Amino acid sequence: MKKEDCIFCKIINKEIPSTIVYEDDEVIAFEDINPIAPVHVLIIPKEHIEMVTELNEENSKFLPKIYLVANKIAEIKGIKEKGFRIIVNCGEDGGQEVHHIHFHLIGGKKLPVNVL
Ligand code: 5GP
Ligand code: ZN
């Protein structure tokens, strides 16, 4: 998929609206439009990388930032103490619908063993 057609690139470029909870020059985080828990935020790199299998030595330097941002958001949302889950779906069998790599930060309730 070309990045011109990518819904998350459009969110990054503010071409479509979203509720942004964190942004810097490397990553952006916004509320999932269809939350499955009281807290459901998507954290994504600004670079259009389609999925986990597209990661390589050069384009993966943002990865630690994802977890630091997740911590920050968990603190802001008040779920740092109780915990949360970070999920990355990859490809068809992984249930990935949007082909711009994203990290689901989910929490605010006791999560079932099988979620997403
Ligand atoms: P996936 O199934 O690819 O891992 O997750 C894609 C996620 O993106 C879903 O949880 C879905 O609700 C969310 N999503 C899809 N389109 C939009 C959108 O236009 N805006 C926002 N904020 N979230 C979206
Ligand atoms: Zn994209």
Describe the fold and architecture.
The chain is an alpha+beta fold and 116 residues long. It has one domain (3-107): 2-Layer Sandwich (HIT family, subunit A). The chain contains 3 helices and 5 strands, in the order H-E-E-E-H-E-H-E. Strands 1-2-3-5-4 form a 5-stranded antiparallel β-sheet, covered by helices on one side. The longest helix has 15 residues, at 63-77. Bound molecules: guanosine-5'-monophosphate and zinc ion.
Q: Any descriptors?
A:
HIT family, subunit A; binds guanosine-5'-monophosphate; binds zinc ion; 3 helices; alpha+beta; 5 strands; 5-stranded antiparallel β-sheet; globular
Summarize the structure.
The chain is α+β, with helices and mostly antiparallel strands. 22% of the residues lie in helices and 22% in strands.
**Mean pLDDT over the residues:** 96
Q: What is the percent of helical residues?
A: 10-25%
Low-confidence stretches: none
Silhouette: globular
SSE arrangement:
Elements: H1 7-12, E1 20-23, E2 27-31, E3 39-45, H2 63-77, E4 84-87, H3 91-94, E5 103-107
Antiparallel strand pairs: 1-2, 2-3, 3-5, 4-5
This protein binds guanosine-5'-monophosphate and zinc ion.
Guanosine-5'-monophosphate binds at residues 7, 18, 30-34, 42, 89, 95-98.
